[in-house]
């Protein structure tokens, strides 16, 4: 009996490794291609010239001003999107869970709605809104952040919802209030620390989505990182692909860092 | 001792979707007193406590603490400590940090906070667990920390919302006694909500029995037990036999004996007499009209279930544990009330 079980276990283990390897090849192959493309010169010789250009901040700002502007705009957009999304979503979802749980389905529906709306349709709907945004706030790319908040809502909602389900928000907030905390303090001192992993996860998804967004920025004729890369691709494909690869690696590092932070805080509590 | 203040709830009303959770509840707590609100699920006891805490807004009525009207004051400004039924320790903080939470909000210095939290954790017997997180403690320990946290802020009123219901029987009894010891030591006016009559009778100065949002009786445990105001209270607090009898003014005939009646009893006609199991005796009698149905040994005492023989329902009799073995199913016995005052209610 135990022999059959061991054989079955071995087979499952082999199958698992096959699936992992195929997935790794599937994801890694394009990245390897990008790396290969960016480390060859016109004669097909290996060179790090493209990557050297990329890490030379002054040089890239001088030689590729659109790329530098796009990168700066995207970082600004990521920060604005994350801040607005968290300020909007965390208190709202907490409030709904505490005071009007009957509304949670409606909030969920509203937050998931952007998933069903194609970006092109969103742009058509947002055009009149953005004419007012431009009128009041100017033409800066950064204000695309408001549209990006709508885009990230479904993903951020899911992350935060999972976090809220994992804790007894009602009892914790009532305990904090009975000890003298106002609603602001309840959010900052009790709810947010217990939603840390969920908030980090939502923030990461927002950053990843913002850094990768092309359609809305392009249709609104704004230059973010992706638009700059697209434009650069027409004149200097190698640097464009290198920036794309760097952005992907950056996203992986952030994801890894996130799981490391979440895992470490958990194990620290376990150990203590 | 008496650092406590008086608490007055006046004519509190609260309705949820047409159901009266509180139906004109009026309750007074003396300074330093521990009052337990007892009742079945949905009777409004927790709503009453939450109205006092400010976690629920009553539709009408007044909440006064120490002579001040707090009806419209928000929870965080009421200065009340609360222990919840669910474990409520902040998971990201250690036991010490949990206890210091309220003190930090009151802008106390770190040295003062540390001293106070150490003092409180010692009071609840958890000095060795100050650096533990909630998930590293047992349920009983978590509730102890929650009690220390509630008391650390030196609240005007301590509110305990079924704090023992999630614990196992042994820990519950132990912590119940500790709560009473600590409450007497600090002298804080305390409202304790529970559905466990034994818990309420064991630790409260007075017990209030609630039903459908109304306070049926508020009395000292002994009085509540021996002089219940109505049949619901008699049934809910302790065990009661319902025996058919005939009321004759201040006495009633039941089980072949005449029993003095408690105030509030029905004074004439056929009535249901409520008799406690310990107010009955059962003796072996081959000529007796009653028959033993079953007997059980419960440790400190025993119980015998007897059929009185007439068209009456079975009766429970409390006997010394050593006597349980004397009664076997089918034995003929004689059943007699000891003559303690009983409540008689008109038969519906």
From TrEMBL, chain B:
All copies of domain ABC transporter, residue ranges: 7-237
InterPro entries according to UniProt: AAA+_ATPase, ABC_SmlMolc_Importer, ABC_transporter-like_ATP-bd, ABC_transporter-like_CS, Mo/tungstate-bd_C_term_dom, P-loop_NTPase, Transp-assoc_OB_typ2
GO cellular component, one term: ATP-binding cassette (ABC) transporter complex
Name of one Pfam family that matches: TOBE_2
PROSITE patterns: ABC_TRANSPORTER_1, ABC_TRANSPORTER_2
Alphabetic keyword roster: ATP-binding, Nucleotide-binding, Transport
Enzyme category, top tier: translocase
This protein's name: ABC-type quaternary amine transporter
């Amino acid at each position: 009996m135990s022999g059959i079980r061991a054989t079955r276990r071995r087979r499952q283990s082999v199958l698992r490794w096959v699936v992992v390897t195929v997935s790794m090849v599937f994801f890694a192959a394009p990245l390897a291609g990008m790396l290969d493309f960016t480390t060859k010169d016109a004669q097909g010789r290996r060179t790090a010239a493209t990557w050297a250009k990329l890490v030379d901040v002054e040089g890239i700002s001088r030689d590729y001003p659109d790329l530098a502007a796009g990168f700066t705009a995207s970082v600004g957009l990521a920060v604005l999107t994350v801040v607005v999304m968290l300020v909007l979503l965390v208190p709202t979802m907490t409030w709904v869970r505490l005071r009007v749980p009957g509304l949670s389905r409606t909030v969920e529906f509203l937050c998931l709605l952007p998933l069903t709306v194609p970006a092109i349709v969103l742009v058509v709907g947002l055009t009149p809104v953005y004419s007012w945004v431009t009128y009041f706030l100017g033409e800066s790319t950064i204000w695309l952040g408001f549209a990006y908040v709508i885009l990230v809502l479904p993903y951020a909602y899911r992350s935060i919802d999972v976090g809220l389900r994992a804790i007894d928000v009602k009892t914790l907030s009532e305990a904090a209030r009975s000890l003298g905390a106002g609603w602001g303090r309840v959010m900052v001192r009790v709810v947010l620390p217990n939603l840390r992993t969920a908030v980090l996860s939502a923030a990461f998804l927002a950053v990843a989505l913002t850094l990768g967004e092309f359609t809305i920025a392009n249709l609104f004729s704004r230059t973010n990182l992706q638009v700059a890369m697209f434009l650069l691709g027409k004149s200097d494909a190698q640097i464009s692909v290198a920036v794309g690869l760097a952005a992907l690696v950056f996203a992986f590092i952030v994801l890894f860092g996130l799981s490391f932070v979440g895992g470490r805080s958990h194990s620290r509590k376990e150990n203590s | 001792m008496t650092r406590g203040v008086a608490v007055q709830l006046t004519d509190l009303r609260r309705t949820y979707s047409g159901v009266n959770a509180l139906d004109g509840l009026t309750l007074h707590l003396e300074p330093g007193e521990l009052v337990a609100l007892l009742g079945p699920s949905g009777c409004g006891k927790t709503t009453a406590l939450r109205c006092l805490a400010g976690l629920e807004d009553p539709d009408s009525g007044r909440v006064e603490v120490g002579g001040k009207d707090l009806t419209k004051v928000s929870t965080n400004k009421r200065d009340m400590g609360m222990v919840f039924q669910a474990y409520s320790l902040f998971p990201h903080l250690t036991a010490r940090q949990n206890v210091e939470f309220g003190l930090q909000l009151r802008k106390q210095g770190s040295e003062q906070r540390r001293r106070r939290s150490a003092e409180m954790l010692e009071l609840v017997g958890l000095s060795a667990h100050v650096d533990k997180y909630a998930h590293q403690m047992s349920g009983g320990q978590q509730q102890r920390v929650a009690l220390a946290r509630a008391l650390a802020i030196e609240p005007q009123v301590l509110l305990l919302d079924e704090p023992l219901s999630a614990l196992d029987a042994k820990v519950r009894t132990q912590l119940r006694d500790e709560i009473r010891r600590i409450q007497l030591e600090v002298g804080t006016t305390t409202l304790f909500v529970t559905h466990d009559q034994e818990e309420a009778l064991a630790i409260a100065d007075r017990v209030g029995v609630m039903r459908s949002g109304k306070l049926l009786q508020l009395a000292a445990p002994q009085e509540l037990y021996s002089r219940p105001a109505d049949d619901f209270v008699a049934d809910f607090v302790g065990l009661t036999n319902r025996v058919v009898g005939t009321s004759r003014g201040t006495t009633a005939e039941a089980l072949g004996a005449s029993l003095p009646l408690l105030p509030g009893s029905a004074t004439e006609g056929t009535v249901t007499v409520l008799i406690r199991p310990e107010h009955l005796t059962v003796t072996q009698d081959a000529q007796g009209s009653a028959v033993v149905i079953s007997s059980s040994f419960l440790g400190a005492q025993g119980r015998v279930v007897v059929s009185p023989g007439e068209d009456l329902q079975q009766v429970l009799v409390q006997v010394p544990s050593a006597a349980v073995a004397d009664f076997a199913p089918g034995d003929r016995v004689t059943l007699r009330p000891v003559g303690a005052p009983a409540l008689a209610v008109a038969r519906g």
